Amino acid sequence: MGLVAVLVHAGREYRGHGFMNGFGWVLLLLTGVQISLGMMMKISKWRQRKLSSKAYDSSETKSWIMSLIGRVHVLISCLIPVLSWVEMGFGFITLFGFCHEDHLGQCLAHGIMGSAFIFYGLVLVIMLLAADQWLLRSGKSQEFYDSVTITAWGIVNSFTEHRWGSNWSHGDYQHTSMGLIWWGAGMVGIFLSKNWLGDGGYRRNHIPALVLIFTGWSMSQHAQHLPISTKVHGFFGIALMAVGVVRIIEISFILKDQPHDSQEYGRGIRSWQYLPPFLLVESGILFIGATEEQLQLLNDIGIDHGSYILTLSTAAFLIYLDFLFLVTLHRRLRDKRNAVLSGSSGTASGRYANRDDDVDVTNGSSRSQHESDIELTGLLSDDE
């Protein structure tokens, strides 16, 4: 509807071919491919159900093609939300004319890093509500994967924040030092994720939480040109440090160094466990909204930092609600499907089990009756 409204109206003229415009067509193309592949998979399943096995071509080649289509369908399903998020970011900066010339690097840094925090919050929501059993089967702790990601991200930041051949700036020192502590602490987290002196299994640790605390403290201490920018960065640092503190409490006092299991009787999901993902989303939104041009615009308009932080927090709550709703919906649909599948298989197995029980009972009663006849025969013989 939005595309049609833009193309058919005779009002404002849009000149030029901006990056947002081209990216929108890419999203539209991916959506069309996604719908087409979904229809092909549905038609294939319908034919497989309706037609007999002789009439339906179930060759290995066709099965391989359908498997490939399914994989591409899943890949596009994962790409569309990510690309849609990027497109919304492009729409925002295009609307206000931000992120040009010297401001491009800072926009990229804030957008990528803030989106990474939001994505980390989404990962924790998925692990909390839907993927905890997969994590238990993998035999590794959540902190192992967190530490690997932190190490990789730190290595990238250490060698990309400063433009080689140019003079070092204040921001280069800040971001490069942050990358150094990320890969240094990340490697410690990887090492501590395994119980080397015990059974060799994987265990929980606090290193990823400590990385967030150090990062939040560093961000809160960054010198800024505007008072509103200093206060927004300070609140962002507090939110990020809160993630680390809450995460340490969750691991040590809520879960007592044990892996999370949402299906465990008497425990399940504790209310405290919903705090770390939200605080990560809050931190990401605050960091995305803390660029120089945005805060300069707010300062010129006269909006104070309190109103701006509350507005960004509202967006964080809505994004977190969207994450919770989608992951919960997936979990309920998955559990319902598994219940139907286990119920149908359980009915069949129970039917066969009842047949076996009937046979066993019949044989048992026949044997008992035969033994009773023998005993009665013996008693009659003695009396005679």
UniProtKB/TrEMBL annotation:
Q: Where are the transmembrane segments?
A: 22-41, 72-96, 108-131, 234-253, 306-327
Domain Protein YTP1-like C-terminal: from-to ranges: 84-329
Q: Which PANTHER family match?
A: INTEGRAL MEMBRANE PROTEIN (AFU_ORTHOLOGUE AFUA_6G12730)-RELATED (PTHR31685), PROTEIN YTP1 (PTHR31685:SF2)
Specify the protein name: Protein YTP1-like C-terminal domain-containing protein
Q: Where is this region: Disordered?
A: 341-384
Q: Which InterPro entries match?
A: YTP1_C
Residue spans making up a coiled coil are none
Organism field: Nadsonia fulvescens var. elongata DSM 6958
* Entry keyword set: Membrane, Transmembrane, Transmembrane helix
